[in-house]
Amino acid sequence: MSKESQEVTDRFVDNFKELVGNRYIGLRYYSTQEKKVKKYNIQFGVKKHIKGTGRTDNPDFHFIAWDRNAKTYKSFSIANFRYVRFQEKFWTFSNIYDNDKLSRYKRLMTNRKIS
Fold first, then answer.
1. What angle do CA 82, 29, 13 make, to 5 degrees?
2. pLDDT truncated to tens, each residue of the chain (115 aa)?
3. What is the dihedral of CA 24, 9, 30, 95, to 10 degrees?
4. Which of 12, 58, 62, 66 sits a CA distance of 20 to 30 A from 1?
5. How much is the pTM?
6. What is the spatial distance between Cα 13 and Cα 9, in angstroms, rounded to a whole number?
7. What is the secondary structure of the chain as a DSSP string?
8. Which residues pair with 25 in a beta bridge?
9. Neighbour-count burial for 50-79, b at 16+ CB within 10 Å, e otherwise
10. CB of 67 within 8 A of CB of 40?
11. CA distances (Å), 73 to each of 27, 41, 44, 68, in order?
């Protein structure tokens, strides 16, 4: 994996964690096996494969989440990520990756709670 690819992945995952924490969110994700976009109700920020043993995916391009409906952990590729629905807003890869938009949204939500 190139250094640039690793930086993109790390930035996306860090911003994603900052945005949703460990809450349940709606994920739209392209399934390469079924050749269609599927809906998932997932919890992000869970811990599985802490040592990295037993993983069959490439951990550099994937994130682990708890699938609430299937009651199992699933690995999701960042390349097949479409968008998440969180706090009544749809977030695409570029929205999450772009830190400025995320910071503006968090400030807006903070100001909304104060008023």
1. 65
2. 577 777 888 888 888 888 888 888 999 999 888 999 999 999 987 776 555 566 666 666 778 888 999 998 888 888 888 999 888 888 888 888 886 555 665 666 666 655 4
3. 70
4. 66
5. 0.69
6. 6
7. --HHHHHHHHHHHHHHHHHHTT-EEEEEEEETTTTEEEEEEEEES----SS-TT--S-TTSEEEEEETTTTEEEEEEGGGEEEEEETTEEEEHHHHH-HHHHHHHHHHHHHHHH-
8. 42
9. eeeeeeeeeeebbbbbbeeeeeeebbbebe
10. yes
11. 14, 12, 10, 9
Residue keyed to tokens 């911003």: 15
Sequence length of the chain is 115
